[in-house]
Structure formats: structure tokens, C-alpha cells
Predict the 3D structure of the following.
Amino acid sequence: MTHSFASCALTYAYIPSTRFVEVSSGEKTYIFQPNHQCKWVRWLCILVTVSTSVRAGEENANDGWNLLSRYLYRDAAEVFQQSSTEDLRLRDLGLAASMLNEPPITTGKIARAEALLRKVMAAGLNDDTGLYASYLVASILQRHRTATNGEIEAAYRAVIQINPTSAIAQISAAHLALVLLYQRADLPIAARLQAAGELEKIATGPHLPEVALGYYQHLADAAMYYDVLDDRVVEWLEKAHAIGSSDELTQSTLSLQIAETARKTGQREKAIGYYQQFLADAVPTEQRYHTAEVRMGELMKESR
């Protein structure tokens, strides 16, 4: 039996916090302001397709991937440990992914998971299994080891280099962008934004629209966090908005973000258009509705 992956990876997605921010004039603006410590949420995207009939002993491995995709990490780990599948690398990959998420996440558990992943990598990096194992090792360096920024960057770039058009390269590029934006204190702000922006082609690949949307949000969030507010920020937010989120609140918030940012950068007509989109989608009783309505009205008066 052979398995082919379609965007199967353990990913840690950065979710910036949204809050009102008081400015000197007393007005409230609605933009993402990331905290110094990024909020991370773990989500697992696994789609293992079986190209031939399942042989005896391999059903358990498939059950393990199914459990893992439903965030049942402990159950998945037990299934992988008991599996008699002939594809030992795929089993070890699943077991390592389960261990990295099953609480409590201890140093011993991390060490065992990393050993499994490096064993998978030693057998080859040019297939999906080896590629995903190398990504997980890079994420371990970033989140669980005292690795230098250079080591973390090198690990993610190595994953990207193996297959730049893959889904896992897209995820790795998005994570590398965050490293460049928030961890490279040795670089000036402009250089951080430029370095992260150079990953656009890979980070916005066609495989995972949510990752592409998040990448553009990361760029805009970082720029605003560093008090950079220019036409690039509007452009990044518009690109995120064009990709679209399945979450209605996220999409409407993007409309409001663009309206606010366009207003602050002097793009009156664009701001009005996105205020109108927000008001069309938002509930009139929502706290932000009235303020958006007032600001749109002010802009419309100015344009007369």
C-alpha cells in the first residue's frame, strides 16, 4: 500500500489578539495589535489517501491518522504504537506528531519524538514522509530547544528547499516569516519586513488558503506593531481579504481593518468602500457598528 499526502502537517498557527486601542485623540481604532508573546494555536491538517486496498495490519495506522486529525492525540499515539503497518516511517511520523501534542509535553517526550523524526529523515528526505518529518524537527527547534535564530531559519529554509511548491514549504515559509518579523532583533524594522515579504511567493501558495491569509495578516500586524502604517499595510490586508476566510467574523474584521488603515493613510474612497462592506455584514447591535458608521459618514462628508 502507498500513501499520498495532500497537505498533511502538524502546524502551529499564530493568532494575533484583537482589541480596542485608545489613541491620543480618544478615538478607538480596530486593528490587530499582537502581544509581545504570540498566541499560538495548534491545528492539525491530515489527509492520507490510500491508493490501493488496505492490507491486514495497516487499518490501525489509518485509524491513527484519523484520530490525529480529530485532535485525539493520546488515542492516536496508542494506535500508532500498536500498529503493524509495513510503512514504519509513516507510523513513526504519526507517533511523533501525536507525542508533540499530547499533554503534558515533557522534555522526555520531545526527545523521543525528535529521535523518531530524525530516524524518518535519515531514510530519505525527498518523499512526503521525510519532508514532513523535517518540518516537525524545525518546529521543535523553534518551540522546544534553545536554538539560535540562525539555526531555526536554516531548518525552515532547508524544508522549503527540498520542495518549494509543496504545502509543507508554504507552512514553513509562513513560520519563517514570523521568525524574521519578531525574533530578528539584530535587524532594523524595515529589513525585517522586507525579509518576511520576500517569502510571499512560497507562503501564499495554492495549497492552503488559510496559511496564505495568515501570512498577509502577519505582515500587516507586524508593521502596525512597529508603528509602520503605509500603503503596504493596506495592500497586505486587501490580499488577505481577497483570499477570504470561512469565518464570517474574521472576514468582516478584515473589512474594518482595511477601512481603518485606509482612512489613516488618506485613502478616503477605499476606506468608505470597506466601511460599507463591514456594515453590510455586521450586526447593527455590534459594538463596532456605530463607530464605523460614524466614521464612514465623516469621510463621505469630506468627499462632497
Observations:
- The first strand starts at residue 3 and ends at 5.
- The beta strands are 3-5, 9-14, 18-22, 28-32, 40-45, 48-50.
- Confidence is low (pLDDT under 50) at residues 1-57.
